[in-house]
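Fill in residues.
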């Protein structure tokens, strides 16, 4: 038996060029094996449309419903407002969600007024009235605390950039939109890794402790792996799996650059790793970041231009992806000592909920 319920506060992570990322909690997954029942708390990273952010801002500006408490969590409120305005209201359960749900009628009325003011009939038309290219798109970099402390990194970067710490992810720095850090000495030395905010949230969500044993199931290119290693302060053991031979080498290079000596790279399919193997009997946490649809990282897929494309192509692709991801998640849940699993993937919100439905139905 398995019962899955999406609930809890959502958190915004502004990242990438065309999207916002949100974090939701898949809480209370119950897996029964005979008389034994496990309670596993999982995190899911998903994406919502970047085009909806200015709409949300305008709605909040119009109604001014946020108290001082919630203004300090303004980014979180944007994500909840998105769910209220655009159809995921049934999944809201946290205190912040309940606060905004009390204002639902006022918020929807503000959206209706915004449509009138912009002289459009539909929200899809409303998005085109904003100059999306003018919106700020910050750059992010994650400090590798195996090599450098946060304060020293800030002092070094402030010599050249306006930089500040992210309020949500420890050790994550925010830079101006056009900051080019690729050739910076701290990046080349592995003291800092260029990584978006949503990607940086994954290791923090896992929250591994020093001396734990952890599996990173789909590890390449390795940025999340070394982030996990840093959170463990270089102690414990991380088994980083990668199926693709070419990507294994890139993973090894990343681990070496970061100085993550507690990481063991394995060229192996995670699905072939036996939970009954004594070598994995003490694994307490698993990071599962499997292949995604591409819908969350590309504005518009161009599959329809292929000669082989048919109307059923996307559905077939999604069904196969759902079957694989369901199998991977079930496999992760089967490890005997696992306490925490983070399942993160990249999807547009509509495809994410369809994928989740397919996984449950299968």
């Amino acid at each position: 038996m398995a019962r899955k319920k999406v609930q809890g506060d959502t958190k915004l992570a502004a990242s990438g060029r065309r999207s916002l990322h949100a974090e939701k909690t898949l809480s209370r997954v119950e897996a029964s094996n005979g008389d034994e029942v496990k309670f596993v708390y999982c995190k899911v990273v998903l994406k919502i449309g970047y085009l909806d952010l200015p709409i949300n801002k305008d709605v909040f500006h119009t109604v001014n419903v946020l108290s001082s408490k919630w203004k300090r969590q303004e980014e979180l409120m944007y994500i909840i407002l998105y769910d209220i305005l655009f159809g995921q209201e049934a999944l809201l359960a946290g205190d912040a969600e309940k606060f905004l749900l009390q204002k639902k009628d006022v918020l929807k009325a503000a959206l209706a007024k915004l449509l009138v003011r912009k002289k459009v009939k539909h929200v899809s038309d409303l998005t085109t009235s904003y100059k999306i290219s003018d919106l700020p798109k910050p750059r992010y970099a994650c400090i590798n605390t195996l090599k450098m402390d946060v304060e020293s990194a800030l002092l070094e970067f402030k010599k050249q950039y306006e930089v500040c710490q992210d309020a949500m992810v420890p050790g994550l720095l925010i830079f101006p939109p056009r900051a080019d850090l690729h050739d910076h000495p701290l990046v080349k030395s592995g003291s800092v890794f260029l990584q978006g905010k949503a990607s940086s949230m994954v290791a923090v969500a896992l929250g591994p402790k020093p001396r734990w044993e952890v599996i990173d199931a789909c590890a390449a290119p390795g940025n999340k792996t070394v982030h996990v290693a840093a959170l463990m302060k270089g102690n414990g053991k991380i088994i980083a799996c990668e199926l693709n031979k070419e990507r294994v080498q890139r993973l090894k290079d990343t681990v070496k650059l970061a100085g993550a000596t507690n990481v063991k790279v394995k060229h192996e399919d995670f699905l072939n790793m036996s939970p009954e193997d004594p070598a994995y009997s003490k694994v307490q946490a698993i990071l599962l970041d499997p292949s995604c649809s591409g819908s969350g990282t590309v504005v518009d897929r161009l599959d329809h231009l292929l000669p082989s494309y048919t109307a059923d192509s996307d559905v077939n692709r999604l069904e196969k992806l759902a079957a694989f991801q369901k199998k991977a998640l079930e496999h992760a849940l089967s490890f005997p000592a696992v306490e925490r699993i983070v399942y993160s993937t990249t999807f547009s919100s509509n495809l994410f909920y369809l994928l989740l439905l397919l996984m449950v139905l299968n």
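The radius of gyration is 21 Å.
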